[in-house]
Amino acid sequence: MGDVAAVIKVMPESIETDLMHLKDMLEAALPENVVLHGYKEEPIAFGLKALMLTLILPDSEGGTESIETAFAEVEGVESVQVVEVGLI
Asked: What residues does the Translation elongation factor EF1B beta/delta subunit guanine nucleotide exchange domain cover (predicted)?
């Protein structure tokens, strides 16, 4: 078994949401064996930006459901969407 790279799109509740603070809160919410590999801001519309987080997790984790659940519980998160998953 190897590692998996997952790209997860997190939409903030509003354009006033501090994305750097939100990123820090999301990183703190990650399960113990998951690592934030990188992130970028993606413009959506009318000043709204999403966070695109690239995560590395063990294949034995069995998917991204635990991460999605953890992210959804973070204050300031409107929605969580898995964009891409692949073995590395």
From this structure: 3-88
Query: Average pLDDT per run of 10 along the chain, which is 88 residues long?
Result: 92 95 96 94 94 93 87 96 94
pTM of structure: 0.91
Burial class from Cβ neighbours inside 10 Å (0-12, 13-18, 19+) for residue 67 reads: buried
Q: What is the Cα–Cα distance from 42 to 19, expressed in whole angstroms?
A: 11
Amino acid at 59: D
**CA–CA separation, 60 and 66 (whole Å):** 13
- List the domains of the chain with CATH numbers: 3-87 (3.30.70.60)
